[in-house]
Specification:
With 308 residues, the protein is of the alpha+beta class. Helices cover 37% and strands 22% of the residues. It binds adenosine-5'-diphosphate and magnesium ion.
């Protein structure tokens, strides 16, 4: 559909995940070129609207992660400008970017997510979270909207709590404190409404933090995940329900942890998953028969406007 049109890959951006976005965006740009598309890159800054007009793109491939890219803001601008774009629309993007809102939607749909409390920067001391948080340690403290494990701490005792809360508030004025789920971590990519094979994630450090995510050899990715077939399809089904509950479109990735009972607890939904050649979504797509370039093409072909 976009063969004779101009594709703009939006990359870089202003969020804490800028570096990862540059990697994703450049990998996507090469793939599009190899597939024969007329594609250019647009590094997103405050002048992005001007660039979109002067570069006269027909469709946008959004390769931005985090704020001002994955959160519905750029999607809203593209809607107004009438430029179709890849991935989820404004509302699903905004909901998925906010871990608190995501949890509310998941709970409404009776989908399991770790127990949590939410705190606002201006009143967290008054709320004295340390005295009444959930049922005890360990806990996970995270800003409501960031990615790549930025600002997230696993807290093993009360002594570590204050520092973790302060760190999370550096990124957002709202944080969540979540029960720690001790079990295998898994992720399920969804491509245009179908779940991809489940991948198990085993970080060597035990915590899938920024370093474990982006340093090669720091994490083992196990495929197929070491679970019974029945459980695997149940997990894929749960991931798809979460994708639909938020109203996602195109590609997305659902991060989960299995609890002792084997139930999948949903941590978050990424509406613009990492797209470097070694990222999780391309890995899962590969096991479903899509090479990287074909995956990129599939994602592009699902680009659309949502508020028509
Ligand atoms: N409730 C939890 N229990 C155990 N580990 C968690 C929990 N929440 C987050 N983590 C760990 O932190 C990582 C990042 O958390 P996640 O909620 O997916 O945020 P991000 O948007 O930064 O990826 C997870 O991949 C997992 O390793
Ligand atoms: Mg995650």
């Amino acid at each position: 559909m976009w063969e004779d049109k101009k594709v703009g890959v939006l990359l870089g951006g202003l969020s804490a995940e800028r570096d990862i976005s540059l990697l994703s965006g450049n990998a996507i740009l090469s793939a599009l070129k190899e597939k024969g598309y007329n594609a250019c890159s647009i590094d997103v800054d405050k002048d992005v609207a001007k660039r979109l007009l002067t570069d006269r793109i027909d469709v946008a491939f959004i390769a931005l992660h985090g704020r001002w890219g994955e959160d519905g803001t750029i999607q809203g601008m593209l809607e107004i400008m009438g430029i179709p774009y890849t991935g989820s629309g404004v509302l699903a993007s905004a909901l998925a970017m906010n871990k608190y809102m995501t949890k509310i939607i998941l709970m409404f749909h009776r989908l399991q997510t770790p127990d949590f409390q939410v705190f606002q920067a201006e009143n967290y001391l008054k709320d004295r979270p340390g005295e009444k948080i959930l049922s005890g340690y360990p806990l996970v403290v995270k800003p409501v909207s960031e990615g790549s494990t930025i600002g997230i701490s696993i807290v093993k005792n009360e002594g570590q709590l204050k520092k973790a809360i302060k760190e999370a508030f550096r990124f957002n004025d709202q944080i969540i404190i979540e029960e720690f789920i001790d079990g295998p971590e898994i992720t399920v990519g969804i491509l245009n409404g179908s779940p991809l094979p489940v991948i198990e994630i085993v970080p060597k450090s035990g915590f899938y933090d920024y370093e474990s995510k982006y340093t090669s050899g720091m994490t083992e990715y196990i495929f197929p995940a070491r679970l019974a077939n029945e459980q695997l399809s149940e997990i894929q089904n749960t991931a798809l329900k979460a994708y639909k509950a938020l109203g996602c479109h195109g590609a997305a990735r659902v991060d989960m942890i299995l609890d002792v009972k084997g139930n999948a607890n949903i941590l978050e939904i990424n509406t613009i998953p990492g797209m470097t050649k070694t990222s999780l979504l391309p890995k899962a797509a590969y096991h479903a028969g899509y090479d990287f370039n074909t995956l990129v093409q599939e994602m592009l072909e699902s680009a659309r406007l949502h508020s028509q």
